[in-house]
Amino acid sequence: MSFANAKWDLINNEIEESSKEIAKALGLSPLLIQICRRRGYQTEEQIQEFLSSSPTLWHDPYLMYDMEKAIQRIQQAIETDESILIFGDYDADGITSTAVLYETLEMMGAQVEYYLPNRFIDGYGPNIRVFEEYLEKGVSLIITVDCGIAAHESVEWAMSQQCDVIVTDHHEIPPVLPKAYAVIHPRHPDGEYPFGDLSGAGVAFKLAHALLGELPVELAEIACIGTIADLVSLTDENRSLVKLGLQQLNQTERIGLSYLFQELQLIPGSIDEKTIGFQVGPCLNALGRLGDATPGVALFTTFDDEVAQEVVTLMQQENAKRKQIVDDITKEALELAKAQIDHKVLVLAQSNWHEGVLGIVASRIVEQLQKPTIVLGIQSDGLMAKGSARSCAQFNLYDALSYCQETLAKFGGHHMAAGLSVETVMLPGFMEAIETYAKQHPELLEDEKVIPIEEALSLSQVNVEFIDSLQALKPYGTNNAEPIFKISNILVGQKQKIGAQQQHLKLTLNSEQNQLQALIFNKGEWADSLNLQAEVEVIGTLEINEWQQNRLPQLMLKDISVKDALIFDWRTNKIRPEHLSVKKAAYLVERDALKPLVSERIDTSSKVFSMEEWIKEEKQEDFNSIVFFDCPQSKEVIQEFRKHSYTQKMYIIAYTPKSIMTMGIPTRERFVAVYQYLKTHSNVPYNEKTGELATYLKIPLDQFKVILKVFFELKFVIIENGCLSLNPESTSMDLMQSTLMKQLQEELWLERVFIYSQFSELTNWLTNMEE
């Protein structure tokens, strides 16, 4: 049973004979060759190029449509001392694109300056106001980088003012191209460029290639950062660019980058696509997310120590601020999500949310709640909400927003991500419309997570030499994923929660004489459901853990599968959205009042049962999980459940609106006190003032009510004319003959097992039939 609720898809466990032949010819492992061939590199020559540390796959920049025309115009501008403006973008790709072209033109002696738009003042892409400002300064040539392909109005305006515009971009091409002097795009409909997935920085790099007449090796370290950060395909020429760029970054002489690497504690020689993607890229992006991205260009181009240090300090400050803002908004958004537990799509809107980080927040919420999520910041005037959307499963955001377009002021995007603006008065209508769309297409929200597995290995095959051989597959990224391996027939030797909040999990995995350390971030709670010496299968990526000059294999876990039942400790009396989001689950609800509330809010693939109904259910195999929503109320039924339930994954919530343990069962002394009072006081009123008697006798009201119910059941008391009195015909009876007392004792026992026991004790009781 998988911890991550995922299906493992083993690609192929057979190594072909032809792969073995190529492996022999190249002196490499057959498995490494097989992995290359699965990724589309079939011949010996293709595999050599793919694995080479000295890439040679570079395309002729002049194969791009309009490249020659653009080069001639730029050279003319340089020769005649025209003022040139580079118009960039505010993300990492836009910043690096600008830096690449700015440095190129400066080297060529051009009169050049650059402008990066502020997302909060200028919005995305070229605009007439900025163009007009620079035309007044004498600019006669504008070159856009990482933007402009859809900027028809501003481009045509500049062209009409006798200012030529060269557009360089890589984004989706609209049906009609802007009427620019030249349009350079790797997928230009009239072009012949063989690779269409360049980033904005990649396009700028190719423009520099053409301008300089040779491959601009020294610019690769800048362009590779934009390429990695923009998540474009790391194949073909992008792979060459990133390989070359990473080599340069590991020996960089740019003082801005050197200071940044020191601040991030990145050691030269260890910088790879992961450190760029997860550490350097976010620092660059933070500038444009929160304000002005312009200082980011100086990180690459300055020769001034003081300027470099100032830029790095600013980037670190802005990134720390960005992280805190994201954390704060995510926390607030998750609180809002609680009110939308029964919604198929979450629409979360609030004032004072920073527009620049809402895409990150939406992604986090999707990751936690597994629902398409739209996060909107209501602007200060209260009239408009703007934000971002992120999707999951097969739910196409663009189609969904198109269905709701009458309620929207503006939107754009694709299947998995979108941006939108909606007038606040239209928010209720928009929420209703998108929920209607989701309910009309339930199949789009039902999607099993599939993890592709490259190969099944034994623990003995996992060693430093094998992991070192895999390094030739790097850089990893889009269309060249890091290989995931499966390891079976191993035991959990040790488990440990680590991290400041015990949020991470570290395992020692054993098999005969072999041992492997394994680590997964933000899954510390998995430790509670893992028994030591349990037999498991694991999947993950392999890396070398270097510590004090020791190099040891390490598995970065993706998922764990156990043969025994998986039980998760969700015990709480505060129901959160994730408690009602388990898919294909049997929700066991004993209290009738809770059943409709739960049934309305759970995923459509799940269903509510009483425990007795579940025991009799003939299609238990249709459900992957069991959720104990509230605490069971019958010891006999739970014993039957343990004999007749076949689902191996269980979540224990044990929600209890009124706990017997908290209320307490009345002691014999309290029964006696009430009995003696009634014996000496006749005609005690039985009405709303009965509670006053409980106060007088110093008995909690809930317990007092139980005492009276037991007395009625055992016929110790009667009511005549609205007054309580002892029944003169009653006979002495043991209080435990009361059905109510037996039920309360049974519920108390079940609460002790399900709510108040150690989780390990509860796990043993559920799985081992221990009494």
From TrEMBL:
<dbReference type="Pfam" id="PF01368">
    <property type="entry name" value="DHH"/>
</dbReference>
<dbReference type="GO" id="GO:0003676">
    <property type="term" value="F:nucleic acid binding"/>
</dbReference>
<protein>
    <recommendedName>
        <fullName>Single-stranded-DNA-specific exonuclease RecJ</fullName>
    </recommendedName>
</protein>
<dbReference type="InterPro" id="IPR001667">
    <property type="entry name" value="DDH_dom"/>
</dbReference>
<keyword id="KW-0540">Nuclease</keyword>
<keyword id="KW-0269">Exonuclease</keyword>
<feature type="domain" description="RecJ OB">
    <location>
        <begin position="455"/>
        <end position="559"/>
    </location>
</feature>
<dbReference type="InterPro" id="IPR004610">
    <property type="entry name" value="RecJ"/>
</dbReference>
<feature type="domain" description="DHHA1">
    <location>
        <begin position="343"/>
        <end position="439"/>
    </location>
</feature>
<dbReference type="Pfam" id="PF10141">
    <property type="entry name" value="ssDNA-exonuc_C"/>
</dbReference>
<feature type="domain" description="Single-stranded-DNA-specific exonuclease RecJ C-terminal">
    <location>
        <begin position="567"/>
        <end position="766"/>
    </location>
</feature>
<dbReference type="GO" id="GO:0008409">
    <property type="term" value="F:5'-3' exonuclease activity"/>
</dbReference>
<dbReference type="Pfam" id="PF17768">
    <property type="entry name" value="RecJ_OB"/>
</dbReference>
<feature type="domain" description="DDH">
    <location>
        <begin position="83"/>
        <end position="227"/>
    </location>
</feature>
<dbReference type="GO" id="GO:0006310">
    <property type="term" value="P:DNA recombination"/>
</dbReference>
<keyword id="KW-0378">Hydrolase</keyword>
<dbReference type="InterPro" id="IPR003156">
    <property type="entry name" value="DHHA1_dom"/>
</dbReference>
<dbReference type="InterPro" id="IPR041122">
    <property type="entry name" value="RecJ_OB"/>
</dbReference>
<dbReference type="GO" id="GO:0006281">
    <property type="term" value="P:DNA repair"/>
</dbReference>
<dbReference type="InterPro" id="IPR018779">
    <property type="entry name" value="RecJ_C"/>
</dbReference>
<comment type="similarity">
    <text>Belongs to the RecJ family.</text>
</comment>
<dbReference type="InterPro" id="IPR038763">
    <property type="entry name" value="DHH_sf"/>
</dbReference>
<dbReference type="InterPro" id="IPR051673">
    <property type="entry name" value="SSDNA_exonuclease_RecJ"/>
</dbReference>
<dbReference type="Pfam" id="PF02272">
    <property type="entry name" value="DHHA1"/>
</dbReference>
